[in-house]
Write a structure and sequence with these properties.
Distance between the termini: 53 Å
Structural class: alpha/beta
Radius of gyration: 21 Å
Number of helices: 10
Low-confidence stretches: 1-29, 32-41
CATH architecture of the largest domain: 3-Layer(aba) Sandwich
Strand order of the largest sheet: 7-3-8-15-9
Strand content: 25-35%
Shape: elongated
Largest sheet: 5 strands, mixed
Order of helices and strands: HEEEEEEHEHEHEEHEHEHEHEEHH
């Protein structure tokens, strides 16, 4: 009796799965090519044939940002690598409001994935699917360097205004842990940091890699005064109607970890 190898078995299963979908009236653009690195991609749909369309707020340097009409950052390079390994072009939509991206992916028709430093959360996972985590993070609070309020206790005050990006874990944490402060939800992190720098707001609560970078590079009159060990993990957002794409991306993320590509990207954007 001939025995199929695990690789041949998975290939056969993927083909049979595709035939079953076709027999059930499945339609839409699909990808069935084998990605680089040897992982087998399941069938998935795309908004535009041959293209992986990505939604992001592009205002979260160094993870994602918009400069000279071009999307840049760690998440952007990650999206481009995923697309390349799927044999697809990578196309970014214009910058989106962060809290509009999950509803957009859930509704479908405009973007294939959301890649904008999304923390994996159970409440979000009710609406969409997350890929496996690709980056760990914590939260932090930034203030002006000359501020007198630099502790959680001092910031939890009715006279203190805390800027947050609407719909983020920074907002959720601030509302839960600084209930006496005035929480001000805004659309863009850069606006939050600018407000702290100019004295319009007393603090900004957001992802630590982002505010740490902004204090070091763009807003040198500010500093991170509180580091919050939340142990968050980022995942890429995919529609629940497109499980094949989630599986294909998960296979690529595993390959990138195994071949050192992920480590190289992290080193390039975040240093040691």
């Amino acid at each position: 009796m001939n025995h199929l190898s695990r690789r041949d078995f998975l290939k056969t299963a993927a083909i049979l799965s595709g035939l079953a979908l076709t027999g059930c009236g499945g339609s839409g653009n699909s990808g069935t090519d084998e990605p680089e690195g040897g992982s087998v991609a399941e069938e998935y749909t795309l908004v535009k044939p041959g293209t992986l369309i990505v939604a992001s707020d592009l205002d979260f340097m160094p993870l994602d940002y918009y400069e000279d009409g071009e999307a840049k950052g760690f998440d952007v390079d990650l999206s481009k690598e995923i697309a390349a390994r799927l044999g697809l072009e990578c196309e970014y939509l214009p910058p989106q409001d962060f809290d509009s991206i999950i509803p957009m992916i859930k509704q479908g028709g405009k973007a294939d994935i959301g890649n904008s430093a999304f923390t994996i959360r159970d409440d979000r996972a009710k609406e969409i699917d997350f890929t496996d985590p690709y980056l760990d993070s914590n939260l932090g609070i930034a203030v002006r360097s000359d501020s007198e309020a630099k502790t959680e206790e001092a910031l939890n005050n009715p006279n203190i205004t805390i800027a947050v990006q609407s719909g983020t874990t920074g907002e959720f944490w601030a509302r839960e842990n600084l209930p006496n402060a005035q929480i001000v939800p805004l659309t863009q992190p850069t606006v939050c940091m600018t407000g702290v720098s100019t004295g319009q707001y007393d603090a900004f609560c957001a992802d630590l890699p982002v505010i740490g970078h902004q204090c070091e590079v763009s807003f040198t009159d500010c500093e991170v005064c509180v580091e919050i060990p939340t142990g968050e993990q980022y995942g890429i957002v995919v529609s629940k109607d497109n499980p094949g794409l989630t599986a294909a991306i998960n296979a690529i993320l595993a390959d990138m970890e195994a071949d050192g590509t992920m480590a190289n990207l992290k080193s390039m954007w975040f240093g040691a």
